[in-house]
TrEMBL record:
This protein's record includes keyword Cytoplasm: no
GO-annotated biological processes: lipopolysaccharide transport; polysaccharide transport
Record's signal peptide: none
Membrane spanning residue stretches: 64-85, 97-122, 143-164, 170-194, 206-225, 260-282
Primary location class: membrane
GO CC terms, sorted: plasma membrane
Database matches in InterPro entries: ABC2_TM
Protein name (Swiss-Prot/TrEMBL): ABC transporter
């Protein structure tokens, strides 16, 4: 190449866009990138809904009644357990069956949010590596998918309330703010566990084992009143975070009091969860694509 042509070629090359790896400027930059991810994910709400519905359709493709198989299995489980445990705990069957129904349906939702949250990134590794998409989309996708399943299972609650002639009032609507808190917690736990489990693949099995133990340690099949007068076992309720999270929705549905202390504890637990989730997501967001 002649000396005259070299500067011209250099100018043509220099006009092209060049990409360089930006230096990590610390937590301020990380939180800024996290904020952009969250805002962009919120804007894609229509995509999130489409993906969640697609998950449900693919899971039950070819099934005759689809997600209502879960509804049917829940109803059978309640019918099989209700009379046995009502007699075992010496409780009134007319109050125990609504309690057991609401508890099992809501606990199933909480458990699914947590266990599915472990896989909200690793389950879509091909999509994450091949498509530029906010990570929030995958977290909210998991929450919406489980919420759709919850709505199917809620049919069992309605039927039991009708059969048992459970009194309904405007007080039952107090469960709505608690449920909205659950949705936020579900996204937070999905971001947190999804990030951790993308790096450490043994964590989902540990989480599943913890949830299995928590099911028996939380008043789902048994009522908290049965532990009154037993100081050694009352700590099972006192230091169990699932009790407060569960009761902010369950108590209004069962016409039980929702005191300020219970709500405050639930808000504190949720606040800590959200804070830890955001810090963890901001710190490791850039590595998720390499871990999945």
């Amino acid at each position: 190449m002649s000396e005259r042509a070299q500067p011209e070629a250099h100018r043509r090359f220099s006009t092209k866009r060049q990409y360089v790896l930006a230096e990590d400027k610390g937590w301020l930059q990380r939180f800024h990138l996290m904020k952009d991810d969250l805002l962009e994910g919120i804007r894609l709400y229509h995509l999130v809904w489409t993906l969640a519905c697609s998950d449900i359709k693919l899971r039950y493709r070819g099934s005759l009644i689809g997600p209502f198989w879960l509804t049917l299995s829940t109803a059978i489980q309640i019918g099989a357990m209700a009379f046995l445990y009502a007699d075992l705990f010496q409780t009134d069957i007319h109050t125990y069956i609504p309690f057991l129904t609401v508890s099992l349906v809501l606990w199933g939702y909480i458990s699914s949010l947590i266990t599915d949250g472990c896989h909200c990134f690793s389950a879509y590794d091909t999509l994450i590596k091949g498509t530029r998409m906010p990570f929030l989309v995958h977290a909210v996708r998991s929450v919406i998918r489980n919420t759709i399943i919850l709505l199917h299972n809620a049919v069992v609650i309605v039927l039991v309330f009708v059969l048992m002639d459970v009194h309904l009032s405007f007080y039952n609507l107090a469960a709505i703010p608690g449920f909205l808190l659950w949705l936020i917690d579900g996204v937070a736990i999905s971001l947190l566990l999804g990030t951790i489990c993308a790096r450490f693949r043994d964590i989902p099995q540990i989480v599943a084992a913890i949830m299995q133990v928590a099911f028996f340690m939380t008043p789902v099949m048994w009522q908290a009143a049965t532990l009154r007068g037993h100081p050694g076992t009352e700590s099972v309720i006192l230091y169990n975070p699932f009790v407060y999270i569960l009761d902010v929705v369950r108590n209004p549905l069962l016409n039980e009091p929702l005191d300020a202390l219970l709500v405050m504890k639930a808000l504190i637990i949720s606040g800590v969860l959200i804070l830890v989730s955001l810090v963890s997501f901001a710190r490791f967001r850039g590595r998720i694509s390499f871990w999945v």
